[in-house]
Amino acid sequence: MRRAGSTFGRRLIIENNKNGAQRPAQGAPRGAQGSGGPRRNKKKKMTAGRVLGAIMRFIASCLCVCIILGSVAAVAVSLAGCSGSSGSATEKGADTQAPKAEAGAETGKEEDGGEKKEEAGASKDEKLIIYSPLTESMIDSMLAMFEEDTGIDAECLAMGTGDALKRIQTEADNPQADILWSGTIGTVKNKSEYFADYTTSNEDAFYDEYKNTEGNLTRFDTIPSVIMVNTDLIGDIKIEGYEDLLNPELKGKIAFADPAASSSSFEHLVNMLYAMGGGNPDNGWDYVKQFCAQLDGKLLGGSSAVYKGVADGEYTVGLTFEQGSAQYVGAGAPVKTVYMSEGVIFRGDGVYIIKGCPNESNAQKFVDWLTSKDVQEFMNNTQYRRTIRKDVEAGDAMVPMDQIKVIQDDETDTAAHKSEWLDEFKELFTE
Question: According to CATH, what is the number of the domain 124-222+348-395?
Fold first, then answer.
């Protein structure tokens, strides 16, 4: 993983480092920074002879310049005379005509001369600008495919979903990007006024619950909450769902991140409330209280710390997104993925066209490409992002959806109660 501020391949730009760190000035002379010590400036003693010599060299240089400029001027006059006597193609104009620009090329016309010229920069027909919170490896590998398949030059600015939404809102009068790629529907729905209506041609292949009923919120995959288990450490302890996490033998051995900092942990909190509350989140807090006691005062800082902690043997079990666990299963690590017997929420993840974007046609092509069968199969099998298409089977590291007890929450209600639920969790954890 490269540090913020570095480039990944030629497609990915990561948001600038927020810590204010400064890089050495570009073009700084050697020895200015990190040269192994200060340079020594050796001064030469100036004599009268050296001064006179310098003056003579300067006069000679000036004479050479004058001679060269005079020669150039003479040549220019000669050429002008030849042009005037013969009659140039530019002056005749009627005899010859420049080739017309190819279809789709962006051209402009000067009012005074009628001469055509290409607009600065690449044609809009060749560009696509994306904001995305996805991983660097996924962005780079998939955009390489997109460019090869479509010929469209795609550039991605990587940032968190919240930062991307703030940026899109700020740029609403003059959008600088075309696509927000990823961000759960529940997170983006409250900002849906900044996205354009579009229904992909692949919509009929989607499961009904992931269809774009809103008009401007296209799903491209789904990310269920799961329990990740280290098979070398679990022993004879049964893990089939949330209830099994209350086993006294697991106290202090459960990896869980702060839901205020981790989207996967917050989604697990929502999953707990609905699954253990029998569909009513208000009834799930008794379980959450018991679960907090099992954490034994340990709360991790982010999502990656959970699945890395389980894979490295620091924790016996962890609560994460399917992708976090499936990537280790696919790599042959001693882990397994458990889909909670009480029920699993499959959170839809979206791709959104920014309203008024500069390359709307290309944005629509990207949405169609991303949701196509071939691309969904690639993403499902190599990136461990579960498809929403009915005609694509789950990857080897995933259990088919029809073998999982799927439950749903009210996404609008969840978004409305997010701050309240986070405060309640914090209070229970710190008791």
Answer: 3.40.190.10
**What is each CA distance from 355 to 12, 146, 191, in whole angstroms?**
22, 22, 11
Question: Pairing relation of β-strands 179-184 and 254-255?
Answer: unpaired
Q: pLDDT tens digits, residue range 72-128?
A: 444 343 434 433 333 333 333 333 333 333 333 333 333 333 333 333 333 445 799
Is pLDDT of 368 > 60? yes
Residue range(s) occupied by CATH 3.40.190.10 in the chain? 124-222+348-395, 223-347+410-429
Report the distance separating Cα 36 and Cα 53, nearest Å. 37
Distance CA(72)–CA(228), nearest Å, equals 78
d(C-alpha 328, C-alpha 24), whole Å: 39
Largest CA distance in the chain: 102
15, burial (CB in 10 Å: exposed 0-12, middle 13-18, buried 19+): middle
Place of tokens 């499936």: 326
Out of 3.40.50.300, 3.40.190.10, 3.40.1280.10, 3.30.420.40, select the CATH number for domain 223-347+410-429: 3.40.190.10
pTM: 0.61
For residue 331, what are its two tokens? 């790599």
